[in-house]
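Following up on my earlier message about magnesium ion. Here are the inputs again, as you asked, copied directly from the submission form:
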Amino acid sequence: MGRITLEQVTKSFGEVDVIRPLDLSIEDGEFVVFVGPSGCGKSTLLRLIAGLEDVSSGRIEIDGQDATELPPAKRGLAMVFQSYALYPHMSVRKNIAFPLRMAKMDKAEQDRKVEQAAAVLNLGDYLDRRPGQLSGGQRQRVAIGRAIVREPAAFLFDEPLSNLDAALRVGMRLEISELHKRLTTTMVYVTHDQVEAMTMADKIVVLRAGNIEQVGSPLDLYRRPLNEFVAGFIGSPK
Ligand code: ADP
Ligand code: MG
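Thanks, got it. Here's what our run produced:
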C-alpha cells in the first residue's frame, strides 16, 4: 500500500507547461519531499497525484492500479491542508470525524477512530474545543487527524507548516517525522524550505520549472549534487 508511480506525466494550463514530462516512483512507506522555488510546480504535482487536477498526458498508478482517471475520493490518499481549512463552528471531534460522517460510517466506529487519532496526536484533552480555542500547532494536528481517520494509503502535505512561526515549525516537523515512524504510511510532503527537506525526507525530489533536477536521499544530494542548481538549493559545499 502507498506505492505511487508517475509515467511521463505533464500538466499545462492553457499555453503554459507547468509540469514537463516527468517520471517518478514513490515506494511504500517512503517519506518523499518535493522541494524547489516558488512557482516550480510542487503544488501542481501534488494535486495531480491527489486527483485535484487532471493530467494533460501521462499515467499515474497507485499500488499497481491505473489511477489516472480516478476522482480524488477513490484514490485512497489523504491531503492535509493548512490548519485554516478546519471548520470553525465544529468541535475538534467533529472536525476529525468529518470524512467518516461523509462516508456514513457507524457512529461508534467513528468515535473509536477519532479517539485513536487523538491519542496518536496528543489531542485527547481537546476534542470538545473549537479550532479557535487551539494553538496553531494543535490546529495543524487536528488537520492531520482528519487525514489519519481515513487510513489512507498515503498522506499528501502541501506546505503544512508555512502558517506557523519558526519555533512551532521545528516542533511540528519533529511531530510529523515521528508520526511517519509510527504509522509507516507513505508521505509526500511539499515545501520550499531546504532545511525541512533535508531533515524530514527519505527521498528528495528537486523541482525546477516543472522538471525534476534530481532525486535522491538528503545525503546523496548533499554529497553528489548533479548540477549547480541542486548544489545551490541544497547548500552543498561546492
Ligand atoms: P509551487 O507550488 O511550486 O509554488 P505551483 O504548482 O502552485 O507552484 O504553480 C506552478 C505554476 O503553475 C505557476 O506558474 C502557477 O502560476 C501556475 N498555475 C498553478 N495553478 C494554476 C491554475 N489553476 N491555472 C493557471 N496557472 C496555474
Ligand atoms: Mg505551492
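One observation from looking it over: The chain is about 35% helix and 25% strand. Hope that helps, and feel free to reply on this thread.
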